[in-house]
Every structure is written in structure tokens, then in C-alpha cells.
Amino acid sequence: NVYLDEFESVSSISKHNRTLIWTKYGSQGNRWFNLQRTINTPYPWRIVIEAVSGKSYLSEIAIDDTSLLSDACPPPRQCDFENDLCEFSNTNDGKADLKWLRGQPTNYINDTVFNTTGKVAFVDFTNSNQNSRARLQSAQYPPTTNECIQLWYLLYTPDDNSQLQLQIYSTSTQSSNENLLFSKQSSKSKEWKYAQYSYTPSISNGYYSVIFQVLTNSNSNENNIAAIDDIIISNGTCKPVLNCDFEDFN
Predict the structure, then answer these.
(1) Cβ of 172: how many Cβ atoms within 10 Å?
(2) Average pLDDT per block of 10 residues along the chain, 250 residues long
(3) How many alpha carbons fall within 13 Å on the CB side of residue 64?
(4) pLDDT given for residue 128 in this prediction
(5) DSSP per position, 12-50
(6) Cα separation of 45 and 6, whole Å?
(7) Cβ atoms within 10 A of the Cβ of 227, count?
(8) Best CA proximity match to 168, nearest among 156, 184, 181
(9) What pLDDT is attached to residue 65?
(10) Quick count: other Cβ atoms within 10 Å of Cβ 157?
(11) Inter-CA distances, 79 with 76, 174, 205, 214, 245, Å
């Protein structure tokens, strides 16, 4: 857990407001992750990092290479939706009539680390119609030669006549075109699935962003689930999926 403590003054260290600004639960595999947060407050402040052990003495929790910069952090290229939508936001192309929310959808199971209290990004289908859609767009990133997008997704519908579709597009600041990266269909299996895709943004088109779009072909069905979690957008080509060292929790 990472907390932000805000004080009334430098001398009043006994009185402060504490806000949880980041949390992570469960085994994340034997590897390092990068975390960054922008602190924007008019008050004196400090950061508190808290580690909570599990039942086994074999657990390891470690941090390293902390730094403080004078500018805002660059747009994060990963999001687990535990605290907020990061720098993802709902957008409307003139047809998007549904919204992405953060939390736990109806008839939810667990998030991708089997955390019953974990948060995800999901679509609210309460007022959906045929061809309804929701669009969640990332911040703008500088293009490189190769990019890799990784995520977990859940597309579930119990209705034989209902179908959901998850589409992922890339778009740039210098072009109005949206490039379809890949598309996934719903099933009757209420389970999380992993997906990744390598692509090459057009450097001449300037900064780019990624759009996660969900389409439905049926009217309102609150039993439908469309959710995404643990998004990572990184430089370089994706590694083959079948390469596994069994370190990751999943």
C-alpha cells in the first residue's frame, strides 16, 4: 500500500489526512514492476509505503530505486484499475452510448489475481440497445518502432442471441483514422483470458493512443459482462505467449 499524508503545516506532523494512492494484492511473480504517481497538493506531504505479509514466511515484498522528480509523471503505460482509471477516459465517437466504469460488475467473479475485492474496468449494460458501444481511450504516448499491448479480458453472455465484442484500436494526433489491432468475441464461459498484440505506430502521425471498444448486438442485459484488467503497453515486440517460466501468478 502507498499512502499520501497531507499536513496542515510543516510543524503539525501529528495531524494529517491519509489517502491511499496505490495498492496491489497477491502474488505478482518473481519480477520487478515500475510504479509512478504524480503528487499534486498545496500542503506539506509525505509518502508512506506499507507492506502487509501473508500467511507464509516464504513471501517476499521489496522496493527499490525510489526517486522524486519536479515534473508530472509521464502518462502511465499500465493500469490495474485498483485505485482509479489511471489516465484512461470514456470517449464518444458520436455512437458510444455506454460507459466504462471501475469496480465490480454484476455477477462478477474475481479479478485476474483471484482477489475478491479487486477492481476492474467494466461496461454498464443497463440501458444498452442493439449496436450499443462503450469506448475507453488511453493517454497519448510517443511512438516507437514496436509496441506491445497486453491485457486480461472477460467477455461473458448467458444469452444465445446475445454477443459481445471487444475491439482494440490505435489512433494518432495527426490522423483521424482508427487502426483495428485485434478483436475478441464473447462466450458462455465466465473466465478471464489473456491477450497480447504487437504493432508498429506510424511515427509520422505523431503521438498515439489506444481505444478499448465493446459492442453489443442485443438490448439491455444486466447479466452480460465485459471487463478488462491489468493493461500493460510497453516498447518492443511482444514475447511469444507459449514462453513460460512459471513465475507469474497466472
Answers:
(1) 20
(2) 92 85 79 84 94 83 92 84 88 89 79 69 86 91 86 88 88 83 86 88 80 84 87 87 60
(3) 5
(4) 83
(5) -TT-EEEEEEE---S---SS----------SS-EEEEE-
(6) 4
(7) 26
(8) 181
(9) 94
(10) 23
(11) 7, 26, 25, 18, 23
